[in-house]
Amino acid sequence: EIHQKTYLVNGELKEWNGNTSQVVSTISSTKEYAPTVLGSIPDMGEAEAMEALDSATAAYNKGQGVWPTMKVKDRIECMEAFVKRMEEKREEVVKLLMWEIGKNEADSYKEFDRTVEYIYDTIEDYKQLDRNSAKFQKHDGVYAHIRRGPLGVVLCLGPYNYPLNETFALLIPAIIMGNTTIFKPAKHGVLLITPLLEAFQSSFPKGVVNILFGRGRAVAAPIMKTGKVDVLALIGNSKSANALQEQHPKSNRLRLVLGLEAKNPAIILPDADLDLTVNECIAGTLSFNGQRCTALKVIYVHEDVKDEFLKRFSEKVDALKFGNPWDEGAKLTPLPEPGKPEYIQELLDDAKAKGAKIKNKKGGKHKNNYIWPAVLHPVTKDMRVYEEEQFGPIIPVLSFTDIEQPLDDMAESNYGQQVSLFGKDVYTLSPLIDTLANLVCRVNLNSSCQRGPDVYPFTGRKDSAQSTLSVHDALRSFSIRTFVAFKDN
Ligand code: G3H
Fold first, then answer.
1. Given ligand 1 and candidates 115, 162, 264, 441, which is best to mutate, with the most ligand atoms within 8 Å of its CB?
2. What residues have CB less than 8 Å from 442, skipping those under 6 apart?
3. Which of 242, 245, 174, 237 is nearest to 210 (CA)?
4. Ligand 1 atom 6: the closest Cα is on which residue?
5. Which end of the chain is more exposed for a tag (fewer CB within 10 A), N or C?
6. Where's the Aldehyde dehydrogenase domain (predicted)?
7. Does ligand 1 lie within 6 Å of residue 306's CB atom?
8. Please, what is the Cα angle at 200 between 197 and 203, to 5 degrees?
9. 233 half-sphere exposure, CB direction, 13 A CA radius
10. Cis-peptide into 453, omega within 30 deg
């Protein structure tokens, strides 16, 4: 068991003697599928939140602190020192990733390695950015020396599905651009920050990174209320993002860097290659059991190929291997959120009461959080599963005869992240791609939705995102262009 007893504030790993909360994994070694206790974390509140805020504010010191004024070369050295120390913790962090959130072994290693690569790529891009912004420009007799500067204090909150990769996709660019940060790990995937605390502490000047533990509301809300946060960086749900944003007394001054919900559809045209489509839809709907904002969360299949698609897709779903994260070839693993089986059951009951059927034999069966995916059809718009993001292994399937139907649904949707389009005829696909690109931010042709490679812009329309993340874009999201101008006289 790991009992996290310190937190990082003002460059110090301070002892915590207050209340703690248990960290529990839904991975079980008992016949009854009882959860496993992994350890505990501090249950922090307003006092520690203010300590972290004061530390970050002092380190930024109105833009005059050591960190925001540090030479680019030196800031890079700190970041390189951090990533090297982080790499030494690979095995420890990956093991915790598996236990805490149930991500399978291959994907857990991938998450770690992808994060390390993300940091190295960010360093390279930062060097490039710095070189570019050092250039002079001249227009109409006015010279400008344009640079990129930090924004101030960043409050950073990451999600449980990528507690390392997505959290660091916010934190790392925020730090390297010269901001100071307060970071609270996600509820699940929190203990894996423990092995990295020392790396943060020893790599950056005091106050640049402050790490708190506890419930989001207990620590993040008081910080926002002070009005001293310049950037709210959050990947998670819009409810939490809105609630925090509202706490800020001058929210118009707050920069938002948000990755939020999505309801990415797949559209399967009658001439689609069905083998490829089924495989991509399996990956798109069920990687990490559907707990990805980029997951395919609704499938529109043309009536002409509906039956064949449903048959092949359902068989493939039932053939997937269930297991614990370290079991060889396990594609489906237990979901980490304690209330999830009940929630999934509610959605299935609601859909069934409104006329949907579970098409795969094993669909919806569960032992605690070991939940089999359910392929649902026909799904209608009045069903909760159509509306709610669900972040789990339910796959709603709708059929269509007129392409306007999925397009209208997408236009009406509150979300606009990505779409997957399956088909062959280039004269049909080409205009459709143009239309889809105005509804979402990424059109995946004959492939499932995904965020990576991490150099591509990751964003969304409507309630799906604010600002853009990716190696390249995040440096811009966490900075502002300023310039010195002078005349040719
Ligand atoms: O939860 C949303 C993640 O950004 C998904 O990332 O497409 O790499 O799995 P991914």
1. 162
2. 417, 418, 419, 449, 456, 457
3. 174
4. 451
5. C
6. 25-479
7. no
8. 140
9. 33
10. yes
167 lines ligand 1 (CB under 6 A): no
* Neighbouring C-alpha atoms within 13 Å toward the C-beta of 92: 15
Q: How far apart (Å, rounded) are the C-alpha atoms in residues 423 and 445?
A: 8
User: Per residue in 382-440, pLDDT tens?
Assistant: 999 999 999 999 999 999 999 999 999 999 999 999 999 999 999 999 999 999 999 99
Q: Is the pLDDT of residue 130 over 90?
A: no
Angstrom distance (rounded) from CA 290 to CA 297: 8
User: Sign of the C-alpha dihedral, residues 35, 37, 38, 41?
Assistant: positive
Q: Show the DSSP H helices in 287-363 as ranges.
A: 303-319, 340-353
- For residue 380, what is the DSSP state? -
Question: Nearest residue CA, atom 2 of ligand 1?
Answer: 293
Binding site membership of 464 for ligand 1 (Cβ less than 6 Å): no
Q: How do residues 46-102 score in pLDDT, each as one tens digit?
A: 999 999 999 999 999 999 999 999 999 999 999 999 999 999 999 999 999 999 999
User: Which secondary-structure segment (H or E) carries 442?
Assistant: strand 442-445
Report whether 333 contacts 103 (CB < 8 A): yes
Any ligand 1 atom below 6 A from CB of 366 = no
Give me the residues paired with residue 181 across strands: 154, 209
Look up the pTM and report it.
Answer: 0.96
ipTM for this prediction: 0.96
Query: Measured from the CB, is residue 451 less than 6 Å from ligand 1?
Result: yes
pLDDT more than 70, % of the chain: 99
Per-residue pLDDT reduced to its tens digit, 229-250 = 999 999 999 999 999 999 999 9
In the predicted structure, residue 134 carries a pLDDT above the cut 70? no
Ligand 1 center–CA 59 separation, angstroms: 32
Q: Encoding tokens for residue 174?
A: 């925020």
C-alpha to C-alpha distance for 84 and 90, rounded to whole angstroms: 11
176 burial (CB, 10 Å; 0-12 / 13-18 / 19+) is: buried
Ligand 1 nearest-atom number relative to CA 161: 1
> How many residues make up the chain in this entry?
489
Pull the structure tokens for residue 328: 């060889």
H/E stretch holding 146 reads strand 142-149
DSSP assignment of 14-71, as one string? EE--S-EEEEEES---STT---EEEEEEE---HHHHHHHHHHHHHHHGGGTSTTTTS-
